[in-house]
Amino acid sequence: MSIHALTSFAGRPTVSHAELANAIRFLAIDAVEKAKSGHPGMPMGMADVATVLFSRFLKFDPSDPAWPDRDRFVLSAGHGSMLLYALLYLTGYEGVTSDELKAFRQWGSKTPGHPEYGHTPGVETTTGPLGQGIATAVGMALAERLLNARFGDDFVDHFTYVIAGDGCLMEGLSHEAISLAGHLRLKKLIVLFDDNQISIDGSTSLSCSDHQLARFRASGWMANRIDGHDPEAIAAAIECARNHDRPSLIACRTVIGFGAPNRQGTEKAHGAPLGAEEIAKTRAALDWPYEPFQIPELVIEQWRKIGARGQATRRNWVERTRRLNAVSRSPFHDALNRKLPCEYGAAMDQLRGRFGTERPTMATRQASQLVLDAIAEALPKAQYIRGRLVELIADVESDEKQDRRNKKRDTPGPAQKRLLRHIGDQQEADRCQHDANDSRGLEDRGVETSSFGGDVFRDKRYGACIFSACAKALQQP
């Protein structure tokens, strides 16, 4: 560290918000410049939002990235991956080192051009294809709600946060996802929209004139707009969202490439290195007189304190799970470990035998219904999916048999014990949520799911299916 870096913070007990945010900005700037490729504009614009989220609200522990009750942070705008990598490095995730940041977008590094689940610790889901992240996050929020209904706040109580860009919201997939989230009132889902009004070609008005706040409100969300560079406004908006009874969209009006005198606010900051001359001017404009990848000691210390803040919360959670009595412990740990009861295998064997003997003549969907009914009988607290209808049961207090043929249907709402989810024709979002459920969102939350759909609908799901398969492959030894 330079002498200037040592003296410029001398005698100061605290580190300012601007210094914490600028650490993110310049790590992104320097990594993209070294790689001669990447997207510096979004990390520079959203650094203030990310700093407030991680320093004041996000529940996480870098020493245990897979802690089941951590908050989830999904970077749906995956092209801005250096925002996430900078945060992972600054908060102390093992394996995300300064050298890995210097190897951004290089073969074999932990910092690929877009975040990849299973490859980099702290990455909750693979993102890049626009809309995929926000749709997967809906599955994560749904998972939290189901497990919370079953096991209570002491064991399942976390939020899912998303940073999304205008491209994510332009994709049709996003409409399916936000419609479902609003219908189910997934109140622990908070989307932070990078509302910078710039796309790769210029102003977003060239290709889109949607009123995003009105769109989200029409789908049952709470939505408002704030100054994305005002830390107190950001904090107030997140606090309000955390206490709302619906999912929330916070449109953060930001400046893409914030701090770059000649490129900020333009498409030139979006998807290319700033260049040596512009970087020098940006360092001067933001009072950051340090060498590339150099973070002042007090700044990195403060970020590491932020990263360590969740350790006590995690330890307390672990202790609570250890104190569970045998009756409660078994289903909770079975859920976390995805263990199915023996009745499931027996039911499937019996059904296969019946079909093999009787060779019934019926429509495919009728055969599927028989399978689902058998699963539901074997798993009284199961979650099952049948193409256009999803019945997700989280009722552990009633001993009565549930009506699996949906003769009784509950209205979605925050107080219900049973959650019935009709997905209509939202096939692509449905598959993205199964992607979350099957490979990451519900797997570490203890919800077992199965997906059923016809061939035509399956074709619409191929993208998300490939994502899920790749994520699972990355987890194999």
Task: Give a quick precis of the structure.
The protein contains 19 helices and 10 strands.
Spell out the key features of this protein:
19 helices, 10% strand, 477 residues, Rossmann fold, alpha/beta, five-stranded parallel sheet
Please indicate the percent range of residues in DSSP E strands (runs of 2 or more).
5-15%
Largest sheet: 5 strands, parallel
Number of individual domains: 2
Shape: globular
* Reported CATH architecture of the largest domain: 3-Layer(aba) Sandwich
Query: If you average the pLDDT, what whole number results?
Result: 82
Which percent range fits the helix content?
A: 40-55%
Q: What name does CATH use for the topology of the largest domain?
A: Rossmann fold
Would you write up a description of this structure?
- This protein has 2 domains: 3-316, Rossmann fold (3-Layer(aba) Sandwich), CATH 3.40.50; 342-475, no CATH class.
- It is 47% helix and 10% strand.
- It contains 19 helices and 10 strands.
- It has a 5-stranded parallel sheet, sandwiched between helices.
- Strand 6, helix 10 and strand 7 (248-253) form a beta-alpha-beta unit.
- The longest helix is centred in the first third of the chain and has 20 residues, at 132-151.
